Amino acid sequence: MVAFGEFGPEEIVQIYDLKTGIRGFVVIDNTALGIGKGGVRMLPDITVNEVARLARAMTWKNAMADLPLGGAKGGVKADPWKVDKQEALRALARGMKGLSPARYVAGPDMNTGEKEMLAYAKEIGTMKAATGKPRRAGGLPHELGSTGFGVAHSAAVALRIAGIPINGATVAIEGFGNVGSFTARFLSKWGAKVIAVSERAGTLYDERGLVVSKLIKEKVKRRTLVRLQGGKCKHFSKEKLFETKCDLLIPGARPNAINKKNWRKIRAKVIVEAANIPIAETIEKKLTDKKGVMIVPDFIANAGGVISSYLEMRGRKPEHMFRVVEQKIRKSTRIVLEKALEHDRHPRDVALAIAKQRVRDAMHKRGWKVRKGLGNHREYGAKAI
To answer: Residue 142: pLDDT band by 50, 70, 90 thresholds?
Structure first.
């Protein structure tokens, strides 16, 4: 059951498309700062609770990035390997007509990309309904690597503050899709040594350092790294990635990847959260308090994608986007980590305090004495999910 509180959510839309049988959710969490903005992920086991948690993370992310956008998130309950993804996004769009783009603007997320965003926008009837579209449609596609670029810059700042030179720093990355591969590309370009990456099929490990360009080529060619061999390259289960001894660990796939079952096995000095909610807040604090791990929260590190989305909405070019992503991510990472060290607080607590104050100020300016509404529930189609 989704919990309603001071900040929202304002509206939950549950969709069942009669034409395709596709099910989906959109949660508009808080729009005090602006239109609800957040990506659409496609997974066979996605739930409305997960989407609501991610929508709240977007509220904080947009606020912390100092963007005039509210928080929202979409989810399609389908196996991306078995359905027509563009048709699935068209189905979601049919359920969002009237709300998108007035209250919600979609974007790419796990298992959705520029083609799906274009399909969504066309079905709604305006290109303003989605960001991350192909460049020919006026978009700044996330395939340009904005999120991974931001994660890499956040990691560079965190390593510097932790006193670890980036040149030669060892890195383990969970997930080697768009975000993970671009993060690896930029970090290796700056001298870091990527020693482990994981995907659905398992973990690839080489203590001497993996050749990132080779990994990317293999991923593009075969959509998996499971067949990659050579040198001292070793294969382990995907769960083993979190046991890698390294300077920097980047969880970049599913929520709760680091949890009460495996947190004690973490051997990283710094964690930069590329995924949304990859570690429960209680586990973050245990990692910091008991193991001395410096952690950059998700809504700080992975804000590059939504910064890019906002700049697409403003009609900016890729060159401008990369400059702004670098400036905003490095600034917010530095401020949060330095304040956390200065006041002996957890980075997430520092970042949340800043984000919450920005949202509260915006709510007060709009005259929302309490949070807006009591949470609207809208169903589209034959039945609720």
So the answer is: confident
- Confidence (pTM): 0.86
**Nearest C-alpha neighbor of 31 from the set 51, 5, 1, 11:** 11
User: What is the set of domains in the chain, with CATH numbers?
Assistant: 11-139+366-381 (3.40.50.10860), 146-348 (3.40.50.720)
Q: How far is 82 from 226, CA to CA, in rounded Å? A: 21
pLDDT value for 94: 96
Q: Is the pLDDT of residue 376 over 80?
A: no
Per-residue tokens: 333 = 């990472």
Phi-psi region of 367 (alpha: psi -120 to 50; beta: other; left: phi over 0): left
Measured in degrees and rounded to the nearest 5, phi and psi for residue 11 equal: -155, 135
Dihedral (CA of 249, 254, 257, 260) sign:
positive
Structure token digits, residue 47? 């739930």
**pLDDT surpassing 50 at residue 382:** no
Let me know if 73 is a catalytic residue. yes
Which residue in the list 73, 77, 133, 219 is annotated as catalytic?
A: 73
Dihedral sign, Cα of residue 226, residue 227, residue 232, residue 234: positive
Binning pLDDT at 50, 70 and 90, where does residue 363 land?
Answer: very high
Res 321 pLDDT > 90: yes
Kindly list the distances between the CA atom of residue 160 and the CA atoms of 166, 167, 294, 304, 320, in Å, as whole numbers in the listed order.
Answer: 7, 11, 11, 20, 25
Structure tokens at 351: 């970042």
Note the Cα 370 to chain centre separation in Å.
29
Q: Within a 13 Å sphere around the CA of 321, how many CA atoms are in the beta-carbon half? A: 27
Nearest to 384 by CA among 9, 17, 11: 17
